[in-house]
Each structure stands twice: as C-alpha cells, then as structure tokens.
Amino acid sequence: MVGFMSNYLGKEIKSGTARISLLAVKGGWKAGKNTVQGIRWDGGKLIVPKSALRVEALAWATKSYSTLGAAWRAQEKDATAKKTVDMSFSDWNAEFLSADSSHAKPRSGRLAGGLTFNVLIDFDQGSTCVFNSWSFSDGTTEIVEYGGTLYKSWYAGIGSGENIGTLSASGEVSINDPAIKFQSLKVTGGVVRLPQVKIFSYAGRTPAAPVKPESFTVYANNGDIVGRSNAEGNIEGGITGKIDYETGFYEITRTAGFYPEELRYNAVTQDNLPLDSSIIGIDAVRLPADGRVPVFRKGDMIVISNRLKQDLGSAFTAAQKITLNRQNLDRLCLVDSKGKHVLAEKYTADLKAGSITFGEPLDLSQYALPLTAVCAWEEENRITGVDISGRLKLQFAISRAYPKAGTYVSSALIGGDLLVRATEPFSQQAWDNVWADSRRGDPILAKANVKDYPIKLTSNGAITERWLIRFTTANQFELYGEQLGLVAKSDTLTDLAPTNPATGKPYFTIKSTAFGGGWAAQNCIRFNTYGTPLPVWILRSVQPSPDRQEGRDGFTACLRGNTVAE
User: In angstroms, rounded to a whole number, what is the distance separating the alpha carbons of residues 315 and 480?
Assistant: First the structure.
C-alpha cells in the first residue's frame, strides 16, 4: 500500500539526470504546479501508463523535509526555466502486508511496466519459497501461485486461471497486470523453507513399541548415509547411536552432522494377540500383555553346556584305554544304543586328559552295543543383564570358546544346603483325624524318648511327610503317613524302620528303646520329617503353529552339586 501524508505524498521520479517531486493532490497528480498527464488515482488504484510521461515542468531545486516523522522532498521552483521532460518511474517504496496486518513490513521494488518485489527480504539468507503455498490479494483480486506461476481468476474446478506473473524460489515476485492495485497488495499466505542447519545429534521415540530387534534403520542425506541397529540395540554405520527396543527411544549422532529435514528411519514394531484363559488353561490376568514370560532374569544362575557324542564301536576288552576327541571335560558318561547308561563301576574316566579305561574283568552283556561316549563341557555363571533381543550379560567371563552348534544355556535352580530333619514328636490321648503340628487335647504321661534315642534319617530315604503312630494295644501300633496312608504295623519291642520303596532305604529309624512304656490303645505319636528332594514345577509351553511337530520334543534335567556320604 502506498502511504500518504495528509492529502499528498512526496515521490521521487527520475527523468534524465534531473530529479523532481511528484505530488498527489486532490483531483490529480502534479509536479510542482504543473499537472502530470497520464497518471491518476482511481478508487485506490494507481494508474501508470507504460509509455514515458511527457510533462511541462519548471527547473526546481530539491530540498529535504520531515513532517510528523515522515521524510519527504520538495522543490524550489525556477520560474524562468520551463522545459518539457520525459518522465518514467524508477524506484518506489511501499508496504506489503501479511494476512496479519501487525506484521506489515516496508518493502522495496520496481514499477517498470509492472510490479516486482521480494517476499523473503526479511528472512535469513538462503531461505526459499515452497511452491504451491503462496497467495496474494489487493483487496479485490485474489492471486494464487502454482508451480511458481501466479494466477488470477483461478478456477479450482478445472485448475486454470489467468497468468499474471511469477514467483521464484528465491522470493522474487513479478506481476505484469496493470489492473492489480499495487498500493494495497498483501501477502495472504506462503510457506518459507528456512536455511538448512546441520545438527550433530538427535533423539526421538518411535510411534509404537516394542521395536523388533535389528529392524531399526536410520537414513540421512537422501539415503546416502545409513545406520542400522544390531541385536543389542547399538546403531552402527554412517550414523551411530542406541535404541531401546522395549520403549522405542533412540539417540543418534554423527561427527560430520546431518540435516534434520532429510532425517528418516524405518522400524518394525511388534504386537500381540490377547491370551484366552480358556485355551491356555491358566488365568492370564497376571501374565505380561504379550503373554511372554522371560526364561531368564537378572540375578539368575545358568549353566552353559555343550555335549559331544562319540561312537566307541562294539569291540571292547578289559583294561582297554580309549582316548576321546575332547579334553578338559566337566562330565562324561557312556550309554548304549538304547540310551541305557553304563554303570560307572565298569570304567574309570580321566576328565582332564579326555580318556576312559575299562575295568577288569569286563562284562557288558547287559548293554546293547555299540556304546557312545557323551563328553560334556559345562560351567555355571550368573546373569547380570537381560536384553529383549535375547542377549545375556554374565557376571564372569566364560572359561572356553563354545561352538555355536549344540551349545545350550540352561536355567539352574539353587537348592542351597539340603538336609534331612525331623520335628520333635508329641504324644496325644487319641487321634481325632486332624493332621495338626501340635498336641490336641489333654497331655498324657507316655512320651517318645528321642533325646536319648534320636530319630535317624538318611538323605536317600527320608521324605517330606507327616507321620502318625497309633497304638492298637499297649505294645502294638500302626504307622500312617498323611500322603502315604498305612505304611507299617509294628510294636515297641522292634526298631521302627519302614522302607522307602523308591530307594530301598528307611524313611526313618526309631529305636525300640525310644518308646518306653505307659501306652494304651488309641494313644498316638505325631511327628514330621523333611527330606532333601527339591520341588520343581516344570511347565511345557508350545508355540502355536499350523505345522505338525517333527522330531523329538523334550528336555533334560540334571542334578548338580556336592554330597556328603557316610
């Protein structure tokens, strides 16, 4: 918009080498007292002919003035010097407004048979216009930009309009339509791409998580710079960094930097179907959302093992020594063709040297030949960290390089010190069918003397059980177990040593002298024993699949530890 002070505007027009002041006065335009032909103010629109203006003018001396903060220039007339001059527009000053008038900025441009100006004059050097986003208005005519071309009378239905100018990426606007009201032209819309600034690090989060391990790839410089994540979440390549697969949070860096506008990534996120309790057979409320329960946790003990099977053939002799293909063994056993273990008394093993020597005499008739030696490398360790990728961090360095084929990581349940024990027996008037751990009813005088004659237990015989001795007469009684039922019938004159059929050893032994006397029918003795077996809950999980199972499916449980033998 061309601004006016009162009812006139001081405006410089260049003609030849002279400079004069063009004044807008009510009713027309004048240079001094002379009317300028061909220029008129028509309803807010400045009409300027393309041809040079010829006006009669005096010679004037130009002086500078300032009124109400506005600078302008006036001329001192020289009435003695009249001449006809050719005038044309040179520079002009105007204000181009955005849609928000508070952002009005002075602009400069040229009127030379048209209008030219730059919309990026106030932006940082290197800024560019984004095409297909700009629009202008002079209050009457709407101007839109498509592909750098300016159109008026745009009809969106067919995508056409009247071409009236251009917009360059550098912000240069050129309008060649004299019907446009240059004085009131405004920028009503436009997108500016600021100069690209390199950054050296960036952090973000994927829209969804967890992220599939080894699926995160980040690109820069139109794909020429690439970084990929490994199983541990480390990003390697032209761009480096780290990604947390569980949360999707990532951090990337590059010493040479990259443009954030060109940064992009690919990633695969995982989702899970809800578990149906009626199908899996357990209440899924306390299970994780994805239904996956970790096999290993931080702090767990594990066993790393690799077993090598070596065929020993079918011909063996007494005192024969066989050197195996693996040395520095941790475990060694021999099995026959049916999987039956050869008794350790049949041979001696040198684990360090990796050899076996058969005994003398040698009898292998009870085994199905050929024999196979199972040579095991194994060691214990503790987990200090678990990654979603399946990587385990261990407390100690492993002692050897295990081959990938046939090497397993197994859970190890720590039983601690397992010792057999028995509670102090208590006597009761009669049995009331309640397996209580303390006397019920009034005490009686008869007692079992286990202070002088303690209950004897062995690790290969004792079990965890509640026991009841119920007298049928003063000397005869029956032995019951809470889980076993009636185990034996005996009397006070004989040592009580019921046999555990699983091991052939007594569950416990009570000397006959421990019973003393004073018993009557219906009296009873109650006590508990605790064995060394470690209770383990083994849960089998099968992955859903439409395919039939092929091959063997199972696991091996191995007892590891130290024992004290009598």
Answer: 52
Q: DSSP letter string over 411-446?
A: EE--------EEPPPEEESS--S---SS--SS--S-
The reported pTM is: 0.45
* Domains in the chain, CATH or no CATH each: 10-89 (no CATH), 93-193 (no CATH), 301-412 (2.60.40), 421-530 (no CATH)
What's the confidence (pLDDT) of residue 33? 57
- Please state, in angstroms and rounded to a whole number, the distance separating the CA atoms of residues 21 and 496: 134
Among candidates 329, 356, 330, 331, which has minimal Cα distance to 345? 356
CB neighbour list of residue 413: distance below 8 Å, 6 or more residues apart: 301, 534, 536
Q: Which residues of 398-411 are buried (b: 16+ CB within 10 A; e: fewer)?
A: eeeebeeeeeebbe
Q: Can you say whether residue 360 is alpha, beta or left, with left for phi > 0 and alpha for psi between -120 and 50 degrees? A: beta
User: Are the C-beta atoms of residues 242 and 234 closer than 8 Å to each other?
Assistant: yes
Question: What's the whole-number average pLDDT of the chain?
Answer: 80
Q: Which two tokens stand for residue 275?
A: 């578990």
| Cis geometry, peptide bond prior to residue 501 (ω within 30 degrees of 0) | no
Confidence at 155, pLDDT banded by 50, 70, 90: confident
Residue 465 has pLDDT above 90, yes or no: yes
Mean pLDDT value of segment 510-529: 95
